[in-house]
Amino acid sequence: MSYDRSVSASDRELAPETVWHIDMPEIRFGRDATDELAFQLRDLGVEGAATGLVITDDGVADAGHADRVVAHLEAAGLDVDCYADSEREPSIGAIEDCLSFVRDQTDDGYDFYVGLGGGSCMDTAKATRAIVANGGSPLDYVAEPTGDGQTLTESGPPLVLLPTTAGTGAEISPVAILSVPEKEIKEAISSNHVRADAAVLDPTLTTTLPPDLTARTAMDALGHAIEGYTTHEYDSLLRASDPGERPVYAGRTQLTEMFSEKAIRLLSGSVRTAVHNGDDLDAREDMLLGALFGAISGLTAGASLCHAMAYPVGNKYHTFHGETIAVLTPASTIDYNSASDPARFAEVAEIFGVDTSGLTDREAADALKQAYIQLQRDLGVLPSGLNELADITEDDIEWLAQQTVDTQERLLRCNPRPVTSDDVAAVFRDALHNWEE
């Protein structure tokens, strides 16, 4: 099986797309922006002594961030409950646990929701708010054949997300990623009704993130930016018969390209400092801004092959998403995909800071790969290849490749170069070793 880059929707016209659009939550950015959370909620229509739920995890709670947010909201006259049992890489069961908490505490759900933490906490908050508003269970809204493929029709009460990492982009994306352990796959609830109403991005919430998590989330953000810059153009897709059926990942535009460029510069220029001196607020601010811009690009234009390959790996071996992106990017996004448009990857190399003078486009793309690998080595906390993450056999590679093409169509249709399961298997083999220790 392979995926043609012109695929855009199940119901489409035999004509190129001519329209693009962008949806975005309200965004509040800056040092101590957390102190404006209550104002943001009031601006979204939360009135009086409303009762809300902060959804987070025990690590964020232990760092004191949940106490800070709850105290701020209570000082503003709001009642707040806190759910701190979010699961890393949340499963369907983890979402059901959060739903049970909400339904045990309330008759009709909370008046507002706050997601505080990394992508897993934010995805848990997004899925919970949407399912409470629409009824049913998570699998009702996961695409067929895994789920029932029902359509969300309601967004629910206000949801504000506060990331404590700089990387996932969950604070602006219309997707909640969920694992289905019994099938060893990851699926998504994808809808604009999943997207948060607002995002509050405060770099002071990220200074407690340890070096390894700082590096992992940074690689995810950098992946969004590079994949968003090198995916197909929106007008190479076929036009959807109904604008409502236009895919969430709809191809790059001049707007997303601008965000990609800035994201790549900010992230590649600040991640070394953020990892090795986590208290440097200038670096933390650049990282958070770069992650936001990368998300605007990659989660609008579309993530591609690397992310498609990362989900089966993460689900089977329970690896961190960001480190999986890190080990796969050189072989997938850069090496395999650069053949589709070497000149575009030469542009990425220049944005990344590579001196490309005197190099052909193909040579510049190769230099980009080496610069990306050197960046990872400089961080000192990332694996040297896929083999360091898991004991992967040849049978595993074949299974992972087949899972990629069978379960990740929504991402593969964004890829600038068509792939088959054999292509994906070859990329997995290339990713086993990025450097020798």
Task: Describe the SSE topology.
Blueprint: E1 12-16, E2 26-29, H1 37-43, E3 51-55, H2 58-62, H3 65-75, E4 79-83, H4 92-105, E5 112-117, H5 119-134, E6 159-163, E7 175-180, E8 185-190, E9 198-201, H6 211-230, E10 238-240, H7 254-276, H8 281-301, H9 305-317, H10 321-328, H11 330-336, H12 342-352, H13 361-379, H14 386-389, H15 394-407, H16 409-412, H17 421-430
Parallel strand pairs: 2-9, 3-4, 3-5, 5-6, 6-9
Antiparallel strand pairs: 1-10, 7-8
Relevant terms:
single chain; Rossmann fold; 2 domains; six-stranded parallel β-sheet; 17 helices; 11% strand
Verbal overview:
The chain is of the alpha/beta class. The chain folds into two domains: 12-21 and 209-430, Dehydroquinate synthase-like - alpha domain (Dehydroquinate synthase-like, alpha domain); 33-201, 3-Layer(aba) Sandwich (Rossmann fold). The chain is built from 17 helices and ten strands. Strands 2-9-6-5-3-4 form a six-stranded parallel beta sheet, sandwiched between helices. The protein has a two-stranded antiparallel ribbon with strand order 1-10. Strands 7-8 form a two-stranded antiparallel sheet. β5 (112-117), α5 (119-134) and β6 (159-163) form a beta-alpha-beta unit. α4 (92-105) packs across α5 (119-134).
